[in-house]
């Protein structure tokens, strides 16, 4: 890998290759069973981000034939893992997508043994008071309200989406996802003080788990991650999209059903 610690890579739908020869047979088989354009596009987008992240981190190049050496597969519980040339790698990976963009988070070699990572991408979109009351804990609700009271134009929505995103990231680390009650995870947001754009999160679960978290706001997007291991936030891999300059898209709306072969 090009450097120690966590690394992240973002891309948009325009980075998805036009053909499917960059997918391994198991990926193409799964894709063939997807009827809805939204699901197909998100599946391809996550794999595009993950494969390009691995190829960049390991210096493999990004030609379709090279990307076809890398498989983004899923364990029975849904968590992703990576194979290169048919051999399972020993690093953890987490994938997320939202509004036509995806992010891959790579752990250092050896991290797969612990199942240590979760990442989530959201857009700053309207969130109702009912949403906040239903899915956030009372301390989190108070913090979202305080962000609105500060007077920022999107303070309520930015805060609500940040908390929601951090919960999703933490639940990925626990390998339960949204099958769990989101109020079982408690998020504390620390002010954004770093020059690299990352802010800290303290995340704890009602079961006793505690996670290190990081967050950043890039334009219309908010990105969060959770990990079991203390350390610095991830470094950005070269060649990826700049989320701060990216626009959320919902291309699937034009053709909700995928063309049938």
From TrEMBL:
Domain 4'-phosphopantetheinyl transferase, chain residue ranges per copy: 117-190
Gene3D superfamilies, A to Z: 4'-phosphopantetheinyl transferase domain (3.90.470.20)
Record has Transferase as a keyword: yes
Database matches in InterPro entries: 4-PPantetheinyl_Trfase_dom, 4-PPantetheinyl_Trfase_dom_sf
Origin superkingdom: Bacteria
Keywords (A to Z) from UniProt: Transferase
Protein known as: 4'-phosphopantetheinyl transferase domain-containing protein
Top-level taxonomy: Bacteria, Bacillati, Actinomycetota, Actinomycetes, Micrococcales
């Amino acid at each position: 890998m090009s450097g120690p610690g966590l690394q992240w890579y973002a891309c948009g739908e325009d980075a998805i290759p036009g053909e499917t020869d960059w997918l391994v047979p198991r990926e193409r088989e799964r894709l063939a069973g997807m009827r809805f354009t939204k699901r197909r596009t998100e599946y391809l987008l996550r794999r595009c981000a993950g494969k390009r992240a691995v190829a960049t981190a390991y210096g493999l190049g990004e030609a379709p034939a090279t990307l076809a050496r890398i498989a983004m597969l899923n364990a029975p519980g849904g968590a992703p893992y990576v194979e290169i040339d048919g051999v399972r790698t020993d690093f953890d990976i987490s994938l997320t997508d939202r509004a036509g963009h995806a992010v891959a988070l790579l752990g250092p070699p050896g991290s797969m043994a612990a199942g240590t990572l979760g990442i989530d991408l959201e857009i700053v979109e309207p969130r109702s008071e009912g949403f906040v009351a239903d899915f956030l804990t009372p301390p989190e609700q108070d913090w979202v309200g305080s962000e609105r009271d500060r007077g920022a134009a999107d303070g309520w929505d930015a805060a609500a989406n940040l908390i929601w995103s951090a919960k999703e990231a933490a639940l990925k680390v626990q390998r339960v996802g949204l099958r769990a009650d989101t109020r079982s995870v408690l998020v504390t947001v620390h002010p954004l003080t770093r020059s690299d754009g990352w802010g800290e999160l303290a995340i704890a679960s009602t079961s006793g788990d505690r996670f290190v978290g990081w967050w950043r706001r890039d334009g219309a997007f908010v990105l969060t991650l959770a990990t079991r291991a203390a350390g610095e936030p991830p470094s950005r891999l070269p060649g990826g999209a700049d989320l701060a300059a990216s626009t959320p898209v919902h291309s699937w709306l034009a053709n909700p059903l995928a063309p049938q072969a």
